[in-house]
C-alpha cells in the first residue's frame, strides 16, 4: 500500500527516517500476521494526519525495514505534522516491543514515489544521524534545532524532547544540538511504561546488543520526570 501523489520539486522539507533493528530476526521468529497489522495501524495514523490539508500534508513510503515520512514544504505547521506522526510511529513500535531508531531533519529533498525515487540532503542527513545512534531512540538533528531556533517551536520549549548529553548514544561527527524524544509521556501508577518495553526487548536481544539497551535505559532514567 503506497500513496500516489504528484512528483514534487527539489525543495526544503521536513524528513524523518526510521529503521527497525533486527528486522530479519523479528520476522524469522514471529508469524508475519503479527508484523503486518502493526505496519497497517501505524500507516493509518500517518494517513489520518496527512488528510486534513493536502497542501501542507505529509507523505510516506517504506521498503523492507525502513520507513520515511516527509512534508511538502518546511513551514512550522508542517513540522508539527511530521513531528507528531513520527513520534506516534516511534512510540507505538516501542510499546509493541519492536526495536527501532529514527531521526527527523530538514533539508532539500526530491521524490517521485511512483518510481520509488528519493534523493537529497535531507535523506542523507536523516540516514547518517539515524545510523549513528547506539540505542533505541528518536532524535531531531541539528538542522531542526537551527531551523526552529527563533520560532515558538524551539526545541528547548518542547515538553517531550531533551538534548542528548550521553556521549555513547550517538557517534555522529556533529553530535551538538541533537534533541531526542524523552520517553516521558506514558506512565501508569507513576511507572514509566517505556522502561518495561525496553527491558522486555533487552531480555530477548542478547549480549551483542546490550550497550544499545543500556544507553536507552540510562537516557530514560535521566529524563524520567
Task: Describe the protein's architecture and organization.
It comes from Sulfuriferula nivalis. This is Guanylate cyclase domain-containing protein. The structure is a single chain. This protein has a single domain, classed as Alpha-Beta Plaits. The chain contains seven helices and ten strands. The chain has helices at 23-29, 32-50, 76-95, 121-131, 142-147, 193-205, 210-222, and strands at 8-20, 58-63, 66-71, 100-112, 117-119, 138-140, 161-163, 179-181, 187-188, 191-192. Strands 1, 2, 3, 4, 5, 6, 7 and 8 form an eight-stranded mixed sheet that branches. A two-stranded antiparallel ribbon has the order 9-10. Helix 6 (193-205) runs antiparallel to helix 7 (210-222). The N and C termini lie far apart (39 Å). Residues 1-5 have low confidence and may be disordered.
Reconstruct the topology from this structure.
Blueprint (H helix, E strand, L loop, with lengths): L7 E13 L2 H7 L2 H19 L7 E6 L2 E6 L4 H20 L4 E13 L4 E3 L1 H11 L6 E3 L1 H6 L13 E3 L15 E3 L5 E2 L2 E2 H13 L4 H13 L3
Parallel strand pairs: 4-6
Antiparallel strand pairs: 1-3, 1-4, 2-3, 4-5, 6-8, 7-8, 9-10
In summary, what is this structure?
The chain contains 7 helices and 10 strands.
Descriptive key words:
225 residues; alpha+beta; Alpha-Beta Plaits; 8-stranded mixed beta sheet; 10 strands; Guanylate cyclase domain-containing protein
Distance between the termini: 39 Å
Radius of gyration: 17 Å
What can be said about the biggest beta sheet?
A: 8 strands, mixed
Helix content: 25-40%
CATH architecture: 2-Layer Sandwich
